[in-house]
Amino acid sequence: QVQLMESGGGLVQAGGSLRLSCAASTSISSINAMAWYRQAPGSERELVAAISIKGITYYADSVNSRFTISRDNAKNTLHLQMNSLKPGDTALYSCAADTKRFYWPPTGFRSWGQGTQVTVSS
């Protein structure tokens, strides 16, 4: 039931960078897993990156080596650093937290933010 609020989206040119943030209403240090998802028009929601309570990370093949997920426990904030952006990265990016049951890569998140739009122009 943690409340999540994303920020940092915007319009960038291909090859540029953006840093997304997800502010949580409560401490995130005890949350079993957090993740970033994205969904483009006409496409299904895709798991982009995830981080476990122990700091283990997962990245989708499409973003691996370009995106970095991190957790700032002191500020109760999750980040997604996105470099070398491509037009195909254009989507609504949403933050998720707390899985119903453990899988890796994670699934079944209980809490979701409203999303922040990322648009990459060519």
Oligomer: single chain
Structural class: mainly beta
Fraction of residues in H or I helices? under 10%
Low-confidence stretches: none
Mean pLDDT: 96
User: Got a strand count?
Assistant: 11
Could you tell me the strand content as a percent range?
A: over 45%
Global outline? globular
Task: Give the distance, in angstroms, between the N- and C-terminal Cα atoms.
Answer: 39 Å
Helix-strand sequence: EEEEEEEEEEE
**CA-atom Rg in angstroms:** 13 Å
**So how many helices?**
0
| Biggest sheet layout | 7 strands, mixed
Topology readout:
Blueprint lengths: L3 E4 L2 E4 L4 E7 L8 E7 L6 E7 L4 E3 L7 E6 L4 E6 L8 E9 L9 E4 L3 E6 L1
Parallel strand pairs: 2-11
Antiparallel strand pairs: 1-3, 3-8, 4-5, 4-9, 5-6, 7-8, 9-10, 9-11
